Amino acid sequence: MKGKVYRLYLEGQDLLGPEDLPLKDLAVLLEGLGGLLEAFALEQGYEEPLPASLVGVREGSVALEVSVGAVLPLEEGLFRPLEEGQYHLLGPKTREKAYLLSKELVKEDRTLKLERAGKVKPLLGAAHPVPAPTPPLVVEDVLTLYGEVIRLGGVEPKVDLRTPQGEYHIRAQREDVKALEEENALYREIGVRVRVRLAWEEGGWKVLGHPELLEVLPYRPGDPQEAFIGLARLVGEALRGLDPEEHVRRLRG
C-alpha cells in the first residue's frame, strides 16, 4: 500500500554509507522503528495492522525511506515531541518504545534523524537520547460518568459510553447489558458508577484499560421545558412567555 514517505538518517562515526551497516543492526533498527510506529498507532486508536514498510535505502550516511499508509498525525503527534524532547506528550507505550530504540542506538553511538520541512533534526539516539520513562503513579477509584450509550453487548459484554470527556469502553456483566437492552438504553443518556485504574502522567490523570461497571444510576436527562415550568411556579410572572429552548440556546452562545 502506497503511503506517505518519510526520510530518516542513521548517523554514526562508523557509518559512511549503507555498506557499513550490518544486516543484523539494520534488523534491530527496523524492528525498533516498527514497534515505535505500531505503539503510536494503537494509542491513536488505529486498530488495523499498521501499513508501514521500508521503500528505500540510500547514500547519505544511511538514508532510509519509510512509507506509512495509515492516516496518522505522525509529524505533530510523534516526530515533533521527539525532536523537542516533549516526551510527556507521548502515550506511555510510545514513550517506552522510543526509549528502548534510543537505548539500542546509544550503545552503538548512533543517532536517528528525520528530514522534515527541509531540515534534518535528531529524533533519538546518541546525540538526542530519550530518558527512561518514570514509572507512573497508579491508583484505583470509583467514578460516576454520564453520557450517551453508543454500543451495547458483544462477545464480551460491554457498554460503550460517549461523554463530554471522551468515549469509554466499559466492561459489564451480561445481566446488566441485558437489562439496558430491555430498557432501550441504546442512544439514550444514562449515568453509571464504574471502577477504574488511573495513572498520573505529566498533564493529568489517564484511565488505564477499560472501566468496570458497578451500577447503572437512575438518571434522566433534564428537559428545558419541564425545568422552566417548574421554575416559573416559583418566580411567578418573570418567565411568562419565555421560550425555554431559545433561551437555553442563547445562553450557550
Walk me through this protein's architecture.
- This protein is an alpha+beta fold and 253 residues long.
- The protein has three domains: 4-125, no CATH class; 138-220, Beta Barrel (OB fold (Dihydrolipoamide Acetyltransferase, E2P)); 222-252, no CATH class.
- It is 31% helix and 36% strand.
- It has six helices and ten strands.
- It has helices at residues 23-43, 74-84, 92-107, 174-182, 224-235, 244-252; strands spanning 4-12, 52-58, 62-68, 110-116, 119-125, 137-152, 158-163, 166-171, 189-201, 204-217.
- Strands 2-3-1-4-5 form a five-stranded antiparallel sheet. It has a five-stranded antiparallel sheet with strand order 8-7-6-9-10.
- A hairpin with a 2-residue loop joins strand 9 (189-201) and strand 10 (204-217).
- Helix 1 packs antiparallel against helix 3 (92-107).
- The radius of gyration is 26 Å and the shape is elongated.
Topology:
Blueprint: E1 4-12, H1 23-43, E2 52-58, E3 62-68, H2 74-84, H3 92-107, E4 110-116, E5 119-125, E6 137-152, E7 158-163, E8 166-171, H4 174-182, E9 189-201, E10 204-217, H5 224-235, H6 244-252
Antiparallel strand pairs: 1-3, 1-4, 2-3, 4-5, 6-7, 6-9, 7-8, 9-10
Structure summarized in a few sentences:
Helices cover 31% and strands 36% of the residues. With 253 residues, the protein is of the alpha+beta class.
Residues in helix, %: 25-40%
Strand order of the largest sheet: 2-3-1-4-5
Tell me the domain tally.
3
Helices, by number, come to 6
Round the Cα radius of gyration to an integer and report it.
26 Å
Distance between the termini: 45 Å
Overall SS class: alpha+beta
